[in-house]
Amino acid sequence: MIPPRTVATGMQSGIPVEKALRVCSAVPDAAVSSGPAGGTSGIGIQLAGSQTREAVRSAAHRTLPGAPSWGRVLATTVSLWAGRRVSRLRHPRLALVLTMCVVVAAAAVVTVVQVGGTSSRTASAPRPHPVPPAWARGAAGAARTQAATWVADQLSSAETVGCDPLMCAALRAHGVAASRLVPVTSGAVGADVVVAPVSADGQQGAPVLLASFGSGASLVEVRTAPPGGSAAYQRAVAADMAARRSAGTQLLHSQRIQVADPAAAQLQAGQVDTRLLIMLAMLASQHPWRLAGFAGASPGVPLTEAPFRQVTITGPDAADLATSLAMVRAQRSPYQPAQAAIVRLPGGQMALRIDFAAPSPLGLLTGGASG
């Protein structure tokens, strides 16, 4: 008598291989002898054995190339076990039953290996990296992205923008309306503002620099052409600077606005947009305020030519803040802000923040408004 064998369980719970092997092991040992005596058909035994080995061999070959090696090991183990078992059976019918059991077990092995191999390859398959658009590639693409972001956030929506094909694509991707874009190859003809890389000779058709991004061969500039020409523009800039310094000094002497450094020094130096100065004077006539700070400078341009265009102030209670916000939003051009909102400062205090769009107009305090 051959002692009963127990199939070691090492597979996942619920997989039918273990169940199939238990069914096959239930064949009584009384049906097993040491030889083919007792009327057992040798042809039947050979047929059952060959069918068993062929079924398991076929199952092993159907495993996926990338499947775990334990699938083939298990299939080989089942084949050897079944071969020894079948060769000792007296009855061909039992051999046929055992063959069917092995086929079921082999099919279960193939299923498990296929599922495991597929999930493994799926989990390890690399994800393709998205290819950036042409306008966003390289150092020049980074500069275009910065310029497009600045134009979308800071430039007045009334300004038309001249751009080359790549820059126009970047501007559209950042939300600038296509109706504002004017395709140009050089200069700012037909556009209020031109956004383009520096030309080979370092000169631009629009002489006034509003902002710049990048450096070297990747430099992208935002420029405009003043209506009266460069000489008249420089005279207007000097006059506007003197007027901003005078107005800033007057605000510092007001008892209705508390200003601390560095904002006080920026007011004295004329580094604050004229529209902000006029707005602060108007708000101070309604409520006392504390000036938290200025922001909104244009990258790559001196504050004397492109002053701060954002201010944050605190003071009144929530109701007064709401009233002041409504008054600010009700202003008309050129004093209508690009953005105005009540914000919460890092310390938790509520404040009123006002942003004006670029470029800063000249002559609002001297009577020669332009821009």
Report on this structure:
This protein is of the alpha/beta class and 371 residues long. It has three domains: 16-124, no CATH class; 134-224, no CATH class; 230-355, no CATH class. The protein is built from ten helices and ten strands. Strand 1, helix 6 and strand 2 (181-183) form a beta-alpha-beta unit. Helix 3 packs antiparallel against helix 4 (92-124) and helix 5 packs across helix 6 (165-173).
Determine the strand fraction and express it as a percent band: 5-15%
* Helix-residue proportion: 40-55%
Count of alpha/pi helices: 10
Contiguous low-pLDDT stretches (5 residues minimum) are 5-49, 63-68
Tell me the major beta sheet.
5 strands, mixed
Class from secondary-structure proportions: alpha/beta
Global Rg: 42 Å
Q: Quick one: overall form?
A: extended
Mean model confidence by pLDDT: 77
Give a count of the beta strands, DSSP E runs of length 2 or more: 10
Strand order of the largest sheet: 2-1-3-5-4
Number of domains: 3
The string of secondary-structure elements, in order, is: HHHHHEHEEEEHEHHEEHEE
End-to-end separation in angstroms reads: 108 Å
